[in-house]
Every structure is written in structure tokens, then in C-alpha cells.
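Could you help me review a protein record that somebody else here produced? My question to you is simply how this chain folds and whether the C-alpha cells agree. Thanks in advance; the entry in question is below:
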Amino acid sequence: MAFGDLNETPVDAGWIHPYQRGQASIQTQNCELTQAFDTQAFLVDVDELDPILDADPDTDMGDIVFNPMRYGRRRESLDDPMEPYWEEDVTREVNGIPVSRFIMNFEYEAPLIDTGFIEYHNLVETDKRQFKELESDDLAVQFNADVWRAKHGLTADPTEHSVRELRVRASFLKEYLEERGMALVLSYLQRRTVEPSDAVAIDESVEVPVSDGTSKREFHPERMPGLGHSCWFYWTCPILPDDIPQSREAQLAEQREHLPFRTQNGHSVTKEGVDDGSAFREIGISRPPAGPEDHDYIHFDPAVLERYRNDPRGGVEEWSEQGLTVDWLDRWIVRLYRSDNEQLVLLVDDLTSIGDTELSHWHQHNVTPVGEVPKEMVQNYVYAEPVDTFAPAQAVLNGMREADSLFESLRSESLFRDIPLDRNAEDLLTPVREDRDEFLQITQDLDNILVERVNQSAIESITGQSAGGTKNAFFDLYEFLADTDRAAELMTPINAVHYFRNEESHDRVQPGWTEALEELDMADNPDILELYRYTLQEVADSLDELESLLQENQTQLE
């Protein structure tokens, strides 16, 4: 029974195990081998590492475990009751050198990684002691919570062993240690016991070479019947920042420097090259631009938006007919434009707006350009002129607000009840996918915002007749302001939205898809994106006409 050569720093496929505790058994035909593990970690100043490695890894490492008095509670300072502190903030000493915690061990809780490490990297706990970087979703800390839950009786699932371990991604640890000038020291103990004692012969003279740190091996013969022979191995292993090949920041810098994006003019650029200007010099365009020829563009397929649509950390919002913005955690925001063939186009200069952690995602969706550069993009970037169009949903909300404002100035009451702010209409303002069900959901939302919020009583006080519903009240108002035929025309897109709402609600008595398409005079199998934009723009035009009619009939309404 021997321990293998420990000839390198224990960095396993980019991970380090700073916490390991429990035991596992191996049953053979002749005997049972039980292995017990106990690894604790602490931080020490790099300049004070030598006295730590000179210490006895057995006797001098016995009091380095950081255990709080009680999980989640502070205790009062003996010197000043008004200054509470966590017990895990207290340092320990090894061979006269103060060391600080990196792992807190709990008796009835899973071990907790240093809160400074969590805060430094903006980590969030997604499962018991599993932390991901908030911005990128990359896993930085991993703990096998299933074994812990089984050990403490929190689950009925059996477990083959009781070893709990916590792993830390080395690239995150390197940056953290470099920032502080610290080394992470592992105090490792492994005990092996063989029972029965005569099942194996142990050579006590075998040495266990280690390339780094201090080790010690002890042999304990059977002391009591049934306990078997045991061999103890202690290892004090330091991990310095230089022992870890690449930091998290270096990985991101490598992406900035080496991920190439293909432009519309066939050039290859990187974020780093755009940021320092070398990309523009290489492709022969001036900064600041001297004219239209000094602009280039990067194209992406629409699927690039899915990450930001489906995650609460991100957002996608249309702000003009072709313009939209993508944001992520309030860390960055980038402006794109939609071309006629639905590709999304980014100005090369704006590549620097995309966060480093997201570059690989955008790189995957960089596509060969098809079609022309969106006209609004040329208008914005080349000629520095504002865009005066609105996204379809934005145009509807603007139309509601303008008509409502004029109506209230004339009648001292609102036309619509509670028009939502843009930030409360995020689902409506997010551009639709090429998906029928999603389109129907948006039209249902629009029906709830537009038709269901019509102030029926205010309209009835004008027309002098009972409407019998909010949609009918809408028609009555148009008819009062114009005539029956014109009212029917202006209600066409609003009726279509209402029919789509019936389809979405699975109304078997009044299905609405066919009726809605007939109202809009569209083919049976329309392109969903075209249908979405046409429907909402027609509604917006109807509301604009309503505002004009209200202005024309001011005297009659006052």
C-alpha cells in the first residue's frame, strides 16, 4: 500500500480542490481498503510562505479549520459590543505566521467559499455552493451537494461514499491570488486502512516524493483487533499564482485579441484591434471617418438575440423600424439594425460595446453578409442624421398616449385606462420571432393593453348610447367623429388584433386566425414577421387617424 508520486501542483483539468472531507471504501476479495480524506485551505502572504512550509504538516496544521460559531449569525466583540464580527474573519497562526480563511467549514451546512472571492468575481449561487459568474454564466465554484444532502439525511438517495469536495476553477483563483499577493495553501491528509491486517504487506521504508511543499508519512500497525493496519499521509501544498497557467482576465483578453469577426467588405477584425485602432489601419479606413467609404459592418443571424431575450439579465428592444438595442445586466448596451432579409448589422466600431464575456457567443453568429446595409443605419452613422420612425409596438404605444392626451385635454378624462410605461411593456416591445404562437401571444398582450383598456363610459357619455363592450365603444367613437364606413375601415386592424386574441385563447366557438387574416386582406400562410409588423403598424396608423379626428372635432367634444 503506497501513495503515488505527487510531482505537480494539484490542478485537475483547470480545477483545484481546496476542500475535501469524508471517506470511501473499496471492497476486494480478500480485504477492505478504507480511505479518509481531509483537505483544508487557507491564504497566506507569498512573502511569508517559507515558515508555513517548514512547519510540521501533522502537528502544526491542527488548528487551521475556520468554523463559525453558528451559520448565518454574528457574535459581539468582547472589546466593543457595538462592533459585531464573524468568527470566520478571525485569523489563525501556523508556525507563528497568520493565515486567513479561504473555506469556511460548517458542521451541519455545506462549506462556504470565501465571500471576498465571490464578490470579487460577481458570483451568484445557483445551487448549494455552486457559483456562477453573473455576467457570463461560467461556473467558478462547484460542490457535490448530492453527497452532502445524503450524508445529512436530507435525501433518501443512497451514496457509495461520504466524500464531499468543493472545486474552484483555477483561472478565477489565479486572478484573485495575484490581486492580493497571496498563496493558497492546501493542508492535505489522507488515511488508508486495510482490514484484516494480514491481507496486505506494507513497506514502511517507501518514501513519497513531492515536488512542492512538505510531506510526512506515518505507519500505524493494528492497535486493536478488527481495526487493521493504517497509513497516514500529510501534505502541505502551496499554490502560487504562477502555478496556474492562465487567469480569467487573460482568457478574456485572448478572446478580445484572437476572435476574428468577418466584415461586410471581407475583412477580419478583432475587438482588441478595433479598440486600439489597428484594425482600421489594416483595412485602410480612417478614424474619425472622412466619408461613407470609411464605414464597415458586421452581420449576425437573428438567433444571436435569443440569449438576451430568454434571460432576465438581458433585454432586446426595438426603437425604430430597423433599429434595436441589446443590453446585458446594465453592463453594456449595443445598437444593431435589421436588414431587409432579417440579418442584424453592427457597425465595426461598436464591436467594442459587446462585453468580453459575450464575445464568443456573438462570434458563433457572425454570418456572411446578404443584402444591403439598412437605410436607417446609413442615415444614423454615415450622415449623422436622427431616425424618426418607430418600432411597430412603440408606434402603437405612442399613438395611444397622443390620442389619450388630446382626449383628456378636451374631456377631462382619459380615453385609455392605465397605458403602460415602456419598461412595463417589455414583452410587447421585444421583437417577435418567426413563430406563430409567439405572435399570437403578442397580439393578446396588445388586445389587453389597447382594447380592454378603452374607457367605455367616457365614450358613451359622448355618443349617448350604450356600447355593450370596449371594442364596440371604440367603433362608436370613430363613427361619431367620422362616419360608419370610415369607422369600419379604421377598426379593421383593431378587429384583427381581437380575432388573433380569440385564436390565442383557444376559443372554439370563435376561432380568430382566418377572420383576422381576412380583415387584414392577407394570404392564408403569411410570413409571421411581415404579419407582425404590418398588423401593429396598421393599428398605429389607426390611432394616428384617431388623434387627427379628435383635433378636427374639438368644438363638438368640448
